[in-house]
Amino acid sequence: MAHDLPLPDYDQLTLGDLRHRIRSVGEEQLRALIDHERAHGNRTPVLELLTARLDELEHGAEPAPGDPRQAPEVTGTRGGSPVRPSTAAEHTTPLRHGVEEQTPSRGRS
C-alpha cells in the first residue's frame, strides 16, 4: 500500500524530487518502491531511476543521512497547469511570408 512506502507522497513526486529523495533510502526500501512502481504506475523513467540507484547501493554506495519521511510535503499542481488565461502569453498570428504589413491584425487590437 502507498501509505506503507518509505517515501511520503511517493505517487505525487516528480522525477526530479524522486531523484533526490531516494538518496536516503536503503536497499530493502528501494526494492519496496520498485515493486510498488511495477504494480501501479510502471513508469519506465521512474523504474530506470530506481533500479539505477539500487545498482549503486549494491555496488557499495551508502544511503545519505536523513529520514525521507521528514521531507516537506509535496504541494505541486498534479494533473494541471499553473498557467491561467491571465498569465498566458499573448496570442500572435504568425507572419504571412515573413512580411508584417501583409499579416492582418498581428496581435493588435
UniProtKB/TrEMBL annotation:
It comes from the Bacteria. Residues 56-109 are annotated as: Disordered. Residues 2-58 form the DUF8129 domain. It holds the Pfam family DUF8129. InterPro entries: DUF8129 (IPR058442). This is DUF8129 domain-containing protein.
